[in-house]
Design a protein that fits this description.
phosphoprotein; rod-shaped; ATP binding; Beta-Lactamase; EC 2.7.13.3; His_kinase_dom; 5-stranded antiparallel beta sheet; alpha+beta; transferase; 605 residues
């Protein structure tokens, strides 16, 4: 009996010294024993609460749950910790965390609990292991039971979210938005099942109602038996991270847009842009316009930079080699001729080279910008031809006026002389005088191209058929056959049909002269962009070299032995007055094609 009393006294001493609430309840929930921690928490003497029902102190809304989980728990299953509200003697409610419960042989219930309601910092349980877990981090943290109710929060939590302990302890965390509640419960269940921490990104709500992105690390807290009975949630505010990420994404988007814009520009402009590394002796970048100009795949240009030199015109090769292969500290430019394809089609390039220096001051790279100036050169050539035509026209005006009057007198007297003498030489003299008169008339056409022009809408196909009927006998005489391929949908052309006939007859005669052994002439009509009529005269003659082709239309230049070049000059002038153009293409040994392009209407009509 003495030993029993000693054991009871020792047990009571340990119970009163413990920092954890210890209770002994009967099967109805009456308090049979409460240690000093519980008495101090309730601020009531021992005699007042002994044999009182525990449910006298439990919040009305929590009584049923406490009855089920504390008095009626299944002894064969581990006790499930939970929280409930507890009314103190002052009428205020605190929160208890029911940690453990076990039934005795007599059917009574031994209970361990811990107060999780601190009214001020002086009352915080610095020695509490839950307090240590929650506050042993600078991140906002809180502990919840398996139902998601908050057990404890740290100072960082209060600072970030604005919620105080009294606002959240014992409740489902108010920082979890309604739309995220199910996700939150699922995460707690997942931690309980896997017994491993998980980290996920979600959103949380501050007391002022603002939501923001967070990263949550949810870790299990174990009992001594190894069972998970609480969870520790540590959160990181990702607002700055996402703002930085958004800023980086925006900057990357701007950079990508600029790069795309630059790429679109370099990929689509006609200028040829390249970056050449002098040390590596290779291209670092070549714009697609190179491929379009040289008709060579970019891959070959990357593999063999020398292709650029291989395509140079032989007469310009030496100058281009010196230009490209001798580095200088200054920007330099050069215009040179190139061969655009295997057929030797000529072209002109204007290349500008800008040096790029390394940090040590040595030139390491070149930026090359080349422009296709072929059309510009052709226009310059055409302008020079027009200038020559103008000069010849002025000369023709003077000659025609000075020669025509005495020529008329001589011709008239020769006709009278022929009638009186009937001399056989007078016919020859008159024939040559008529030829001189014909040449003077050509001079006058060059001098006054707009004289006696009557422009009207004409069916170009009908005009060409009349020309073919007129020229066919002469063509057959030289073994030449004329073939017609007309576009019958060709609109009417505003022109002076007599002058157009003069041009086409001249071109057909030139084609006949180019085929001394006979051949075929192909006369074709068509439309260009529904705005212009194209008349093509193609022969099967000997063709011409590039140099001779470029000189066509110059005064007094002709491929014929006795030609003056005035006929083709007259053609150029007539078509120019019709606001059109004449283009020639020729391949030696295959023939020449002349294309007359006329607008359907004139701007000054």
């Amino acid at each position: 009996m003495v030993e029993m009393c000693a054991e009871q006294a020792a047990a009571k001493w340990f119970a009163d010294k413990a920092r954890t609430i210890l209770l002994l309840l009967d099967e109805q929930g009456k308090i049979k024993y409460a240690n000093r921690v519980f008495r101090q928490l309730m601020t009531i003497p021992y005699a007042t609460h002994t044999d009182q029902s525990l449910f006298h102190f439990i919040h009305e809304e929590d009584k049923e749950e406490v009855r089920k989980r504390l008095l009626l728990f299944d002894e064969d299953l581990p006790f499930a910790p939970f929280t409930s509200r507890l009314r103190r003697d002052s009428g205020r409610y605190g929160h208890l965390f029911w940690q453990q419960a076990e039934k005795t042989k007599e059917g009574w219930i031994q209970v361990m609990a811990e107060s999780i309601q601190e009214n001020n910092r002086d009352c915080q349980k610095e020695g509490s292991w839950l307090h240590f877990i929650a506050n042993h981090t600078e991140d906002p943290g809180y502990i919840v039971d398996l139902r998601g109710r908050v057990i404890l929060i740290n100072e960082s939590f209060e600072q970030l979210y604005g919620w105080k302990k009294n606002d959240v302890i014992g409740k489902i965390s108010p920082i979890v938005p309604d739309e995220c509640r199910q996700e939150w419960f699922d995460k707690i269940e997942s931690v309980c099942q896997s017994k491993k921490p998980i980290t996920f990104q979600t959103i949380r709500t501050k007391r002022d109602g603002t939501t923001f992105p967070v990263s949550v690390t949810l870790s299990p807290i174990y009992e001594r038996t190894g069972r998970v009975f609480l969870c520790l949630a540590l959160t990181k505010d990702l607002t700055e991270y996402f703002e930085t990420k958004l800023l980086v994404e925006q900057q990357n988007k701007v950079i990508a847009e600029r790069e795309k814009l630059l790429l679109d520009i370099t990929e689509n402009i006609t200028e040829m842009i390249s970056l050449f590394d002098l040390k590596l002796n290779k291209f670092l970048y070549i714009s697609p316009s190179y491929e379009r100009f040289f008709n060579t795949p970019l891959k070959k240009l990357y593999e063999n930079p020398g292709i650029i030199l291989e395509n140079c015109h032989p007469e310009d090769y030496e100058g281009v080699v010196k230009f490209l292969c001798q580095p200088t500290n200054e920007v330099k430019e050069l215009e040179y001729r190139v061969l655009r394809n295997k057929e030797g089609e000529p072209g002109w390039l204007h290349t500008k080279i800008t040096p790029i220096w390394d940090e040590d001051g040595t030139i390491s790279r070149w930026i090359n910008i080349s422009r296709d100036v072929t059309d510009l050169k052709k226009r310059e050539l055409m302008i020079r031809k027009w200038d020559k035509l103008s000069a010849v026209g002025q000369l023709a005006a003077g000659i025609a006026h000075e020669v025509r009057n005495p020529l008329t007198s001589v011709k008239g007297f020769m006709q009278l002389l022929a009638q009186e003498t009937n001399n056989k030489y007078t016919d020859i003299i008159l024939s040559e005088l008529e030829r001189i008169e014909f040449i003077m008339n050509e001079f006058l056409v060059l001098a006054k191209p707009h004289q006696d022009i009557q422009m009207k809408l004409s069916n170009m196909n009908e005009v060409l058929r009349e020309i073919v009927e007129f020229m066919r006998p002469e063509a057959l005489l030289y073994g030449v056959d004329i073939h017609m391929h007309f576009d019958e949908s060709l609109p009417l052309v505003y022109c002076e049909s007599k002058q157009i006939k003069q041009v086409i007859i001249n071109l057909i005669k030139n084609a006949i002269d180019a085929m001394s052994a006979g051949g075929n002439i192909y006369l074709k009509t068509g439309m260009i962009d529904n705005e212009q009529a194209a008349i093509e005269v193609r022969d099967e003659g000997a063709g011409m070299s590039t140099e001779r082709l470029e000189r066509l239309g110059e005064p007094f230049y002709s491929n014929k032995e006795k030609g003056t070049g005035l006929g083709l000059m007259m053609c150029y002038k007539i078509i120019e007055n019709h606001q059109g153009t004449i283009q020639f293409a020729s391949t030696e040994g295959e023939g020449t094609t002349a294309t007359v392009i006329l607008p359907f209407s004139h701007s000054d009509q």
